[in-house]
C-alpha cells in the first residue's frame, strides 16, 4: 500500500516537536500557579524561631520579642519574685495550669523550663490585648494585694508572675507558654522544642 507521497519521518518529527513545545508551554503556565502555593519569604521569616539572648537580662527585667506576629515576654524572675508565687494560689483560677496552654516541660508551678526564666505569649486570654508587666508589689493603682505580675489595661485582667490568671477577671485562661528550648546557658530559641526538626 502506498503512503501517497507522505514523508512519515517528517510527520513524526513535527508531532514530537509540537508535543515538546506544548509540554514546555504547559510547564511555564503551571509554574506561577504552583509557586503561589509556597509561603513568601516574609511569611517564612514571620514563623521562624527567634533567638533570645538572656545575658543582659537582669533579675526582675523583662524583654519583649516577636514570634509569628505575637509579642513574646521573657522575664528573668528574681528570688523574691519566685518566693511570692505560692502566696496567692487560692486567688488563682487555674493555679496548677490544668488547661493545656503550655508544653509538658512547663507544667510546673513556675510554668517554665528553669524557675528564673519565664517565657510567655504576651497576649491576654480575654480579647488578645497585651498586658503590661507590673513587677512592683502593692502599687497604689493595683492595690495592696498585688504581688507583681501582668495587668491587662483593656478590661482589667490580672496574671501573676507565672502568667496564671486570677479569679474574678474577664480572662478565662492563663497566658500561653510558647514552645522554646535552650541553645546555651544564655540563649533560648522561641518557637521550637527539642523534638522539632
Structural class: alpha+beta
The number of domains is: 2
Report the β-strand fraction as a percent range: 15-25%
Largest sheet: 3 strands, antiparallel
The number of helical segments is 3
**Name of the top-level CATH class of the largest domain:** Mainly Beta
By CATH's scheme, which homologous superfamily of the largest domain applies? Rieske [2Fe-2S] iron-sulphur domain
Average pLDDT confidence is 87
Low-confidence stretches: none
N-to-C order of helices and strands: HHEEEHEEEEEE
Helix content: 10-25%
* CATH fold descriptor of the largest domain: Rieske Iron-sulfur Protein
Q: What form results from the Cα inertia axes?
A: elongated
Number of E-state strands: 9
What is the CATH architecture assignment of the largest domain?
A: 3-layer Sandwich
What's the alpha carbon Rg, rounded to whole Å? Answer: 29 Å
Describe it for me?
- The protein is of the alpha+beta class.
- It is built from three helices and nine strands; from the N terminus they run H-H-E-E-E-H-E-E-E-E-E-E.
- The chain has two domains: 1-38; 50-190, 3-layer Sandwich (Rieske Iron-sulfur Protein), CATH 2.102.10.10.
- The chain has a three-stranded antiparallel β-sheet with strand order 1-9-8, with no helix packed on it. It has a three-stranded antiparallel β-sheet with strand order 2-3-4, with no helix packed on it. Strands 5-6-7 form a three-stranded antiparallel β-sheet, with no helix packed on it.
- A hairpin with a 6-residue loop joins strand 6 and strand 7.
- The model has no long low-confidence stretch (mean pLDDT 87).
Amino acid at each position: 500500500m502506498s503512503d501517497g507521497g507522505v514523508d512519515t519521518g517528517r510527520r513524526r518529527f513535527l508531532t514530537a516537536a509540537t508535543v515538546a513545545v506544548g509540554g514546555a508551554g504547559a510547564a511555564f503556565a503551571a509554574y506561577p500557579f504552583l509557586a503561589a502555593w509556597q509561603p513568601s519569604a516574609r511569611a517564612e521569616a514571620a514563623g521562624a524561631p527567634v533567638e533570645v539572648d538572656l545575658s543582659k537580662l537582669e533579675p526582675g527585667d523583662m524583654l519583649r520579642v516577636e514570634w509569628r506576629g505575637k509579642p513574646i515576654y521573657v522575664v528573668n524572675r528574681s528570688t523574691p519574685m519566685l518566693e511570692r508565687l505560692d502566696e496567692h494560689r487560692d486567688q488563682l483560677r487555674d493555679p496548677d495550669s490544668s488547661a493545656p496552654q503550655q508544653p509538658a516541660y512547663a507544667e510546673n508551678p513556675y510554668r517554665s523550663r528553669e524557675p528564673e526564666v519565664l517565657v510567655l505569649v504576651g497576649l491576654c486570654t480575654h480579647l488578645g490585648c497585651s498586658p503590661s508587666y507590673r513587677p512592683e508589689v502593692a502599687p497604689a493603682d493595683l492595690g495592696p494585694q498585688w504581688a507583681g505580675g501582668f495587668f491587662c489595661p483593656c478590661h482589667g485582667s490580672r496574671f501573676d508572675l507565672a502568667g496564671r490568671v486570677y479569679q474574678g477577671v474577664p480572662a478565662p485562661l492563663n497566658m500561653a507558654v510558647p514552645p522554646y528550648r535552650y541553645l546555651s546557658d544564655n540563649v533560648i530559641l522561641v518557637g521550637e522544642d527539642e523534638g522539632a526538626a
